Structures are given as C-alpha cells and as structure tokens.
Amino acid sequence: MEILLLLYCSMLFRSLCRTACLVLLGACSSSALKVDVSWFTRKACASTDCPESREISVSSSDGEYSVDCNLSGGDGAQILDFQAYRVENNQIVYGMQLHNALIGSNQFAGGSSCVFEVKEDNYYSGACGINPPSVEQPCQLTDLVLGDGSVSGKILCRNLPLVTYPEQTVSVTSPESSAQPFEFSCTGL
C-alpha cells in the first residue's frame, strides 16, 4: 500500500502528495518544503509597462503560491525540477520553472532536455546548460549546491525567447544587477 500511495502522487501535486504520504506513513518531519527565489525579467518596454522585480519565499504551496522542488534519480545522476509561481484565481500571474536539469557528481551537468521558463504576462522558454548564454542555450545554471535535503543554485538568461514569437526576448537576472544571475534555493526536500 505504501508503494502504491507514493506512485499515485503525480508530478503536478507532488508537494501536496509528499506531505500527505509522509503523514499517512507516519514519517512526517518538522521541515516542510521551502522555496526562495528573487529575479528580474528585463525586456524592452515603455516606462509604464515594465515588469517589476519578483520574489517568492514560501513554505509549500498554498492558494497564493504554487511551489515545488524535486530531485529524482540515483547517486550517479539526478534530475532537478523546480517551480515557483504566484497564483490568482487559479491563474498563474508570474513565476518560473526549471525542468530536467541533469546533475552528476553533485554538480550541474546540463542535459539535452534542460528547459527554463519564465512567466511575465507571456511565457518565455529556452534551453539551459553549463555554458554562458547563447542563442541555442539562452540560460546558464551555475553554482549548484546539493545539501542534506536542500539544493541551491544560480540562473542567468539572455535573450530568452517568447514561446509564441521567438523574435521577442527577455533577460532574467538578479534584481540587483543585469550582469548577475539570480539565486534560488529549496530546503526540506
């Protein structure tokens, strides 16, 4: 029954199911998932419609935020999936997600299916890897640190294309500097 319950937890509801599974199995710990991320989406804009810098710092998902951070796989290679969204009336207002970031030997190894996406009135999406941002790979993941139940890192995106109109791009950086990557962390994994 325990294995079936864990297998039933879908990716969409992983953080909620993780808590429910731990409680039902009597293995609930005092540390809940906590996600911290701050970023700025830089785009060409008139002074009246420029996006503001964003910050999400919450423990688990609630009605206002949807967050998840998951490491899957074994000792040799793991996959990191991360998301943090601000939600209003069941609609995503803004946020980001990192999919299929391959981690080997406790460092980011890229992976051909690594994708970063940011939502700011539209969806911007592109490949991520270990090399500096380029047209083929607009996002770079660096300084990955895996700890006991935690993961943190930095992401810098240049010319991340709009999904529906790739000629329109944004840069995703630290709120403090357009030259610096933004930082994220997850604890309580």
Notes on the structure:
10% of the residues lie in helices and 53% in strands. It is built from 2 helices and 12 strands. 29% of the residues are buried.
Q: Which descriptor suits the 3D outline?
A: globular
Helix content: under 10%
Order of helices and strands: HHEEEEEEEEEEEE
Overall mean confidence score, pLDDT: 76
Residue runs with pLDDT of under 50 for 5 or more positions: 1-30
The biggest sheet, with number of strands, parallel, antiparallel or mixed sense and barrel status, is:
12 strands, mixed
Pairing-aware structural class of the strands and helices?
mainly beta
Number of DSSP E strands? 12
Indicate the radius of gyration in whole angstroms. 17 Å
Q: What percent of residues are in strands?
A: over 45%
- How large is the count of helical segments? 2
End-to-end C-alpha gap? 22 Å
In short:
By secondary structure, the chain is mainly beta.
